Amino acid sequence: MAVFETVAVAFWAMLPAYVPNNAAVLAGGGRPIDGGREWNGRRILGDGKTWRGTAVGTLAGAVLALVLNAVGGDVGAALGVSLPEFPVPVVLALPFGAMLGDILASFLKRRTGRERGAAFPGVDQLDFVVVSLALAAAVAPGWFREVFLWDVLFVVLVITPILHVATNAIAYTLGLKDEPW
Fold first, then answer.
1. Which residues lie closer than 8 Å to 61 by C-beta, 6 or more apart?
2. Overall number of domains in the chain
3. How far is CA 141 from CA 96, 164, 165, 181, in A?
4. Cα within 13 Å of Cα(153), Cβ side
5. Over the stretch 98-148, which tens digit does the pLDDT of each residue have?
6. Residue 136: which domain range?
7. Residue ranges of the alpha helices (H) in the chain?
8. Which residues pair with 43 in a beta bridge?
């Protein structure tokens, strides 16, 4: 696969996982998933992980995947690349996996003594990627093996931290986030 095509496929295939956490921030607030409960004197997840944010984030990513399916042929033709189509299980797995990855990262943050919003380098940038890819591989293994070749996975692991840092900095500048990471 040529470099341009590899980057295009990686970005396209991950878009439904890239959007959910941003949509959850925009949805803002609501009832915390952990209901305010603590474990060993620390919140289980914290106020930042809400049912509304999880639902809105998952829905936003799923809708985006369906839109990408609708326009993929035309966009691929315009770019001169073959872009993947998302089967229904993946339409849900990528965005829900992204939200679940972020929830699991919050759990790890609380267990390691980090407060809400504290930086957790590496985990903050890749938590949602690892879980969304694992969930997509579990629900559609053939599709996953066809789309996420080694070069595509490499690009995802390289561009995701860059995109994550950039979008968080923008959200911070716009006042949508309290921290720039």
1. 16, 17, 19, 20, 23, 94, 95, 96, 98
2. 1
3. 17, 26, 30, 32
4. 11
5. 999 999 988 888 888 877 777 777 777 889 999 999 999 999 999 999 999
6. 3-173
7. 3-18, 20-27, 51-79, 88-111, 123-139, 141-147, 150-173
8. 38
